[in-house]
Amino acid sequence: MAEIAPLRALRYTAKAGSLENLVCPPYDVLAPGDRETYLARSPYNSMHLEVPDSYPQAADLLNAWTEQGILKRDPAPAMFIYEQEFSVRGETLRNKLLLCRMRLSDFSENAVLPHENTLDAAKRDRFQLMQATGCNISPVYGLYEDPKRETRERIERLSMDTPRYTCTLDGVTHRLWVVNDRVVLGALCEDFRDRRIYIADGHHRYETALHFRNWRREQGLPGGEFILTGLADLHSAGLAVLPIHRLVHGLEHFDEAALLKQCKAYFQVYEMDTPPEYIETNMDALHRQAKKAFAYYSGGKTWHLLLLKDEALMDRLCPEQSPATRNLNVSLLHKVILEGMLGIGAESLAKQENLTYTRHFSEALASARSGESQCVFFVNPARVKEIREVADAGETMPQKSTWFYPKLLTGLAFHPLDE
Fold this sequence. Notes:
The chain is α+β, with helices and mostly antiparallel strands. It is built from 15 helices and 21 strands.
């Protein structure tokens, strides 16, 4: 099963400046203009490594910062307790993770399991960055089950004192404790001997690391067998999964009236006269009731609620899939509406020719109102239990199906791959 280990991390020193000016989000969540914003915060901001002007430049910066004392390698192996404190729709949540390195394992070994499909372009980018720097710049986010609460209780005890680092970024407070006691580290490693890890976020990074490991083996080079990973208890009350909405655009002969008429064969279709700004509230209520539903909006004053008529529909349409995958809201949307009614197939999805994604409710509304999108489908998020069940079934969800919030910061610790 899973194998974790401490690492001799490369971390910022006091010479680099304030941590708020040094950390950044991972590459795959950046909105237009975000990169420039973080680059401007400090010449040492980790965005210079995460999304560099070129891959050789990232390698040069990493070496220069180490030589200048901006970054320093930990003298002894350690793990880190990493807490995120944040708010979701008015509720304050806290989630604690274990930041460590994890041995790479092929998915066929069932020690580390994915739940989402990936895109080749992103993996090529991350592979070239890893080749140039020989380093994990940002961590993978993983989930584990802890039915006896052993790890949770250890983590709570280890984070009772004042954290070594605290910073706030984009409304989220991040705290980090350093754990370097050998006995404690051994106990934490032992906790995971019989556990599977479910990838929550960072599928591209994980698959890239597998490719990099295999490439190093082919070259006869040591290292590259582990990946920097933040691990959270999948039953933690602090886990938050948010929706990712679907924006449809560029379809020839798009006919809204015909689409809604087709939808009536499978859904109760209600034209809602409440302002579109109330879509989120309505969708939240349906999510709590475990209803299969979508909100459809095309930019006008009204919107449509689509409520599934027959819960057994996907059983008939996709008998080859596991119940876990068939039961997903996003599977229903993709199979019945996007593919079946709008003709947006797997190839178009992979190229994002007629479908793009946003996690921002206001951005989706604006896209429909401006005419940039022909229509938008608002979806409810998958539950953590559903994500685990899909992974256990050996299947994957459509691209951009889950949004674990908040993302793990880039820059708290870098993982040199020579260990």
